[in-house]
Amino acid sequence: MKNKTDFSQGAVWKVIIRMAIPLMLAQLVNVLYSVVDRMYIGHIPDVGSLALTGLGLTMPIVSIVMAFASLCSTGGGPLCSIARGRGDKEEAEKVMANCLSLVIIFSIIITVVLQLFAKPILYAFGASDDTYPYAAEYARIYIWGTIFAMTSLGMNCFINIQGFPTIGMLTVVIGAVVNIVLDPIFIFVLDWGISGAALATLISQAVSAAWAMSFLLGKKAILDLKLKNMVLQGKIVVRIISLGITGFIMSITNAIVQTACNTQLRLYGGDTYVGAMTIITSIREMTFMTVHGLTAGSQPVLGYNYGARLYSRVKQGIRFVFLSSVSYTIVAWALLMLLPETLTKIFNSESALVAAGARGMRIYFCAFIMMSFQLTGQSTFVGLGMSKQAVFFSLLRKVFIVVPLVYLLPLIPAMGADGVFWAEPISDFIGGVSCFAAMYFMVYKKMPRDGE
After folding, report:
1. Which of 71, 178, 200, 381 could be cross-linked to 390 through a Cys-Cys bond (beta carbons 3.0 to 4.6 Å apart)?
2. Would you list the domain boundaries of the chain?
3. Contact status, residue 107 vs residue 146, Cβ threshold 8 Å
4. How many other C-beta atoms are found inside a 10 Å radius of the C-beta of residue 50?
5. Nearest-CA neighbor of 317 among 109, 89, 16, 83?
């Protein structure tokens, strides 16, 4: 056990790979949760294209739910770990219980607001009169499951920090398997269409939440989840929110970007282009799975060795992450450039959507290799505890570059809807170079010798 938790021993690249593999598997399962829905819905006879587009319009809602869940997990998880580390079990239990209270409160508020204002919100997200019925059909069912989604996402970290990573991984795996099994039954066998997909997702998230809570309330848990500790304490809540705001911002920016892209594509290209963006976003999620797992796996290794003043190992880790990321993104880029039509047809086979998706994919991913620069810099900043830099460069690429370009580039003559897709590679290049350069000159080059 000591060899597995002592990241100062063994080849750095082996340690990173050992940490990254379970994270890659978790990423795979997590991606399947939403992507499988889109694959099935896109192939519903006669209405697959519109239904897929409608589902894509609900993606900002999913991002908002994930943002608030991230606020609780990334804020409460580390605080709970710190309390456990210093032997203060009572404080750790209070943090965990307060996080559960926040999850419940946020879930209720989000559910009420989204149910009451679903129509104007979905139109603001880019819905048209043709796609709104499908978006509303999925959203209204999905929203009722907010409490389940937030519980499984927000509380699962408290299983991992107690030293039960397998149980934590099963929280995601079990839900994904249930979703994959129920989707074709509800959508095609029972002929419930997009409502069936939403219901399958709701049930799968309920199963995940039940699994997580059954452990946290069970005898195997090290920390006890007590009702009396669920009374919110101001100091604890402030600390949770202060620490979790980084994860919240990085998640909520996804909703901002998704909304900007959908509304502009609806204006300049119509529903077909919104559907194409749904497919491209799905491909991006699947493509990012491996490299995101790798960079996430490197963060505790870099942080551990940095804290141990083994700076040469930190540099080795950064170099390995960079070279691995570049190698992977080159291969992924080649496949994306060569097979855009084939990849688009996984989701829908209508000729107009395939043409728009393939064209958009070649533009959107043309600078995908530069994401290896962005991710190397981001993972280094996060791993070394430089949260301000991590947030800044995430906002720089997503909000300060992508969003303005999404609105400006379509105004260029002959650019139109293509301008929305071009915003991504431009931001990949500027953001990637900026983030990597800042990491290199601020961290890598200034790294002292071991032990200093």
Report:
1. 381
2. 8-26+269-452, 42-253
3. yes
4. 23
5. 16
Our measurement of the distance from residue 179's CA atom to the centroid of its chain's CA atoms, rounded to an integer in Å, reads 18
Tell me the chain's radius of gyration from C-alpha atoms. Answer: 22
Sign of CA dihedral 225, 231, 234, 238: positive
Distant-in-sequence, close-in-space partners of 186: CB < 8 Å, separation ≥ 6: 192, 195, 196, 197, 199, 200
As given in the structure block, the two tokens for residue 77 are 């998880």
What does the alpha-carbon distance between residue 408 and residue 262 come to, in Å, rounded to a whole number? 14
Predicted local distance difference test score (pLDDT) of residue 449 = 83
- Residue for token digits 């099963």? 170
- CA–CA distance from 352 to each of 154, 217, 364 (Å)? 40, 52, 18
Residue matched to tokens 């508020």:
109
Is residue 20 within 8 A of residue 296, CB to CB? The reply is yes
Judged by average pLDDT, the poorest of 32-36, 54-58, 113-117, 367-371 is 32-36
- Backbone angle region of 73, left / alpha / beta, with phi > 0 → left and psi within -120 to 50 → alpha: alpha
Q: Which residues touch 141 (CB under 8 Å, ≥6 apart)?
A: 195, 198, 199, 202
Q: Where are the alpha helices (DSSP H) in 42-131?
A: 48-56, 59-85, 89-116, 118-124
Give the separation between CA 1 and CA 258, rounded to whole angstroms.
43
- Residue-wise pLDDT tens digits, 194-216: 999 999 999 999 999 999 999 99
